[in-house]
Design goal:
With 387 residues, this protein is mainly α. Helix content is 75%, strand content 0%. 51% of the residues are buried.
């Protein structure tokens, strides 16, 4: 019975992770199609991450007042409306659509990470694997629809609008997988005098800031720097990691960019699914390894020291492995090391870190990609301006 419940817990949270992150991934995969080759892809990243970061940053001060049951319809509405606007391919409608989808993704990550406090390690491994699965399913399905099947880009994006309805499975949790003890925890009134929710309400903003400050060195800095380095690669450098199209297996240069995204997400999926089997206590190891990857890709973009796309594809895949491992180990360490009375708060709060690193990368990438592209054009490599 316990084993069966564990399997269902994993399955439900895998789906929640998949759906929560898939639109974020699809939007990044479609960056070159949304804004074209002449603008930095980091503009899309900026709009895809800024709202998510802001809601995560402010959530510790208000999220306790919204019951989990009420959060799900909000996530569904924001996601569906967001991707519908993005599918119009009109830049001035796409950007607000990206903002709505980003709000849903950030609020969803807080919600489901906090729920893992009640459901334990199986829910966290399911969520982590599902978010990794969102990467590979989102990027590969978009690659398949637009590059292999050559489906209309507007229709391809619109097909994703129905996926957020899968969040409705949340309402089956109590009937399917929750023991009576967890059931009581989830269904208690939001203003109950028990548990971490009331502790949060009774503390002032100063106390909340103090609690957040304790998370900076062990969890937030290593996670945010890993995301900073990998998204600088993905959005600032990868669009310039190009080769003569006749030396590659691709038809268009935008196909190279989409393929890089798919390889990265494959690495993320593998490490988020199985990374917990190789536990790492010192999270700064991942920061160092990802910095090395950034330096290697920067040198390739600037100096063009190899004319083999295969080596770069392997490196992008490895970059994804590092990023996914950092994420799953960070939250696994929290489940193991943090006091249960603080765990729900910590799980929701540390998710600020990945968005912060990605947000900084978006700002830097807006400068970095055009600079690298300008240098390449000046040295006889004009591919970054070609479709």
């Amino acid at each position: 019975m316990e084993l069966d419940r564990d399997k269902k817990t994993f399955a439900y949270f895998w789906l929640f992770g998949l759906i929560n992150n898939i639109l974020y991934v699809v939007i990044l995969s479609a960056a070159s199609d949304i804004i074209g080759p002449s603008l930095p892809k980091s503009i899309v990243l900026l709009f895809d991450i800024m709202p998510s970061f802001l809601i995560k940053l402010s959530a510790p001060f208000f999220v306790h007042s919204i019951h989990y049951d009420k959060r799900i319809p909000i996530l569904i509405l924001l996601s569906m409306l967001g991707i519908i606007l993005v599918s119009t391919r009109s830049l001035w409608l796409c950007l607000p659509g990206i903002v709505l989808a980003s709000l849903s993704s950030g609020f969803g990550e807080i919600t489901f990470l906090q729920l893992t406090h009640f459901f334990g390690s199986k829910s966290l491994t399911g969520w982590s694997s599902g978010t990794g699965g969102a990467g590979i399913v989102g990027s590969f399905s978009y690659l398949l629809l637009t590059t292999v099947f050559r489906l209309n880009i507007q229709l391809s994006l619109l097909l994703y609008a129905a996926l957020p309805l899968i969040f409705l499975l949340y309402y089956k949790i109590n009937d399917s997988i929750v023991s009576s003890q967890v059931y009581q925890s989830l269904d208690m009134p939001i203003d109950s005098s028990d548990g971490p929710i009331e502790l949060l309400k009774s503390n002032g903003w100063v106390d909340i800031v103090k609690r957040l400050s304790k998370l900076v060195i062990p969890y937030m800095i290593p996670l945010s720097t890993v995301y900073l380095f990998e998204y600088l690669i993905n959005q600032g450098v990868a669009p310039t990691l190009l080769f003569p199209i006749d030396t590659t297996p691709f038809v268009k240069y935008r196909d190279i960019y989409v393929t890089y995204g798919t390889l990265y997400q494959l690495g993320v999926f593998i490490s988020r699914t199985w990374g917990h089997k190789l536990p790492v206590k010192n999270l700064y190891l991942f920061s160092v390894l990802q910095l090395i990857n950034l330096l290697i890709t920067l040198s390739q973009s600037y100096y063009y020291w190899t004319d083999s796309i295969s080596w770069i594809m392997v490196l992008i895949f490895y970059e994804g492995l590092i990023g996914g491992s950092s994420y799953v180990n960070c939250f696994m360490n929290i489940l193991k090391d943090v006091d249960p009375n603080e765990r729900e708060f910590v799980l929701g709060s540390v998710s600020i870190s990945d968005s912060l690193g990605t947000l900084i990368a978006a700002f830097l990438g807006i400068i970095l990609e055009p600079s690298l592209c300008k240098h390449q054009i000046g040295t006889g490599r004009p591919w970054c301006r070609m479709e």
